[in-house]
Prior knowledge:
Elements: E1 11-16, E2 21-27, H1 33-37, H2 47-65, E3 70-82, E4 91-102, E5 105-114, E6 117-130, H3 134-146, H4 151-156
Antiparallel strand pairs: 1-2, 2-4, 3-6, 4-5, 5-6
Amino acid sequence: MRLEYFQMITRVVEFDAEKKTLVAAADVPAESPVFEGHFPGYPLLPGVLMIEAMAQTSGWLILGLNRLTAMPFLVGTNTTKMRDFVKPSTPLMVHAELIGDGSGYAVTKAFITREGKRVAEAEIKFAVKTFPDPKFAAMIREWGERLQFPFEKLDAA
C-alpha cells in the first residue's frame, strides 16, 4: 500500500471470472505521512482510503471481467459502513463481487477484512469507459503485472 499515491492494494490474491469475484491483499504501511494528520499520536487509516481500497479491488475485478477493454471510473458509493479502526502495519484482505453490469455502468459489493473480521463494506458504482488512449491502457496493464493480476486467465479464455 502506498498511501501517498493511492495505490491501496498490494497484490491480487484470487480472481474468479465465473463467480465474478476478486480478492486482493492490502498491507497498511507502518509509517506514512497520512498518519501524521490522522491522528497525531493515534494513527488510523482514513475511512476514505478504505473506500479507495474497495474501489481499486472492484476496479480490477471489472477490468478482468472485461478483459482490459474498458476502464472503470468510480462514480458513487451506497451503504458504506466503517465497522472498526485500522492501525498501521495491518494486513487486510479486500473482497469484491460484481452485482450489476450494463448500459456503461457496473456495480460491486466490496468489503475489507482483518483477521477474518469485517472492518468496512460498501456498494460501489462505476462508469465503464473506453480507455482514453493506448498509453493509459498499457500503464494499467503494467500496474496489474506489479499486482500479480492473473493475466494468463484472460489470455487463455
